[in-house]
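REQUEST ID: PR-0412
SUBMITTED BY: lab tech R.K.
PRIORITY: routine
TASK: structure prediction, single protein chain
INPUT:
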Amino acid sequence: MRPRVLIATANEGKKKGLLTFWKELEIDWLSLKDFPPIAEPAETGETYTANAEIKARAYGQAHGQLTVAEDSGVEIAALPGMFGLRTRRQLTASSDMDWLTQFLALMAEQTDRRATFYSAISLYDPSTDACHTVLGSCHGQIVDFPQAPIEKGIPIAAVFVPEGQEEVFSALSPDAKRDVSHRGLSAGQMVPHLLSILKK
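STATUS: complete
OUTPUT:
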């Protein structure tokens, strides 16, 4: 019998991205839509890993299910302390395009375009009450305008060019994202922990 794992995110862009990296694993993936809704846990951690663990533990305990949760963000060299753990919530926006428009307006006068993406992924096992958590990062530059279609839930991916690449995140192939993106790197580190589930 294939193990079942809940991906605890309402962000379809994140979920789709993670499944791209884990599509070959013999796991039945569940979503929050498969369970009764619960109140979103407060992300009170001071690090990406802490917030990922908070979410994985909260949803895993509520649903009695092996659960994966991610916390991610981007840190902008020219705007220290403004985004990071509050990346998505930093701007009040009605849509992904609105968020990206506001973000690019903030960046318009900045000459330092350096940025770093972080992705922490935590796997919670309710049978042991333990979390396994990994962290991936990717350095790059913010460009002046979208260079690819905006991905749902992750608009900034259309204006971020990773180091060593000529295209923005949103334009990269799945294989390229696996090798260079913050989410690809953390998802890769999580594979051994997911494989351990298959051996139980």
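NOTES: The mean pLDDT is 92.
REVIEWED BY: pending
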